[in-house]
Amino acid sequence: GNSVTQMEGPVTLSEEAFLTINCTYTATGYPSLFWYVQYPGEGLQLLLKATKADDKGSNKGFEATYRKETTSFHLEKGSVQVSDSAVYFCALNHGDNFNKFYFGSGTKLNVKP
Amino acid sequence: SQTIHQWPATLVQPVGSPLSLECTVEGTSNPNLYWYRQAAGRGLQLLFYSVGIGQISSEVPQNLSASRPQDRQFILSSKKLLLSDSGFYLCAWSRGGSVTGELFFGEGSRLTVL
After folding, report:
1. Cβ separation A44–B106 shorter than 8 A
2. What is the interface size between A and B, counted as CB pairs within 8 Å?
3. Which pLDDT does position B78 carry in this prediction?
4. pLDDT band at residue B45, thresholds of 50, 70 and 90?
5. Beta strands A11-14; B19-26: pairing state
6. Which residues in A lie closer than 8 A to residue B3 (C-beta atoms)?
7. Is the separation of the CB atoms in B99 and A99 below 8 Å?
8. DSSP bridge pairs for B78
9. How close does chain A come to B64, measured CA to CA in Å?
10. What separation, in Å, do the N-terminal and C-terminal C-alpha atoms of chain A show?
């Protein structure tokens, strides 16, 4: 079946540190991959996405590359800020007729000044 | 542009009372609609999804139900709430028929059952 596994948190970093949040997936065929971010008390917002192998999604300094050979979509940022503190969710869309989405369990990021 | 709204934002209900959460989408037609639940400190659990009026698919058997009386309206209900129903409920939509589309989420509704 389809599933997403991401590293457990919380991840605590100092401001300007390098961030990596690991995400691997299991899926048949060629899913689209997403990273969503959830700030405290809010709904989820799309951060970036990639729709085919070797695509790189990027937004707000965050990047993730769709690696089919390792079935991974790791999230990276070169220099985190306090405002990046949030919960990050990796997700895949298998592209069935009903556009069903599978989410990882979320990784909480705390950035300290 | 498209917008999604859900309400109420917060509610506190006693065990055994009914529930109704509403969600509406504007600026698009024939969207796929979803209800997710996020328990404290946990990930997202898909509860229901709908690809059209009156078409509801349930992912997890429980005492909740969903209805889609209009194209852009999605309602989550319960006749009798349980303590375990507490959580953060998120409505979402995606473009129907799109294989590379994304989910757009509402602001969420926080339910506390006492």
Report:
1. no
2. 63
3. 96
4. confident
5. unpaired
6. none
7. yes
8. B19, B64
9. 20
10. 41
How deeply is A70 buried, as exposed, middle or buried, from its count of CB atoms within 10 A (0-12, 13-18, 19+)? exposed
CA–CA separation, A5 and A17 (whole Å): 24
Residue B108: predicted pLDDT: 93
pLDDT in tens, B63-103: 899 999 999 999 999 999 999 999 999 999 998 766 567 89
Q: What is the dihedral of CA A82, A83, A88, A94, to 10 degrees?
A: -140
pLDDT one-digit tens code per residue, A52-99: 899 999 999 999 999 999 999 999 999 999 999 999 999 998 755 556
Residue contact B100–A89, C-beta within 8 A: no
Residues of A in contact with B44 (CB under 8 A): 44, 89, 103, 106
Tell the burial category of A65 from Cβ atoms under 10 Å away from its Cβ (0-12, 13-18, 19+): middle
Of the candidates A44, A98, A105, the beta carbon closest to that of B105 is on: A44
Residue B41: is its pLDDT beyond 70?
no
Question: What is the DSSP secondary-structure string of B29-76?
Answer: SS-EEEEEEE-TT--EEEEEEEEETTEEEESS-SSEEEEEEETTEEEE
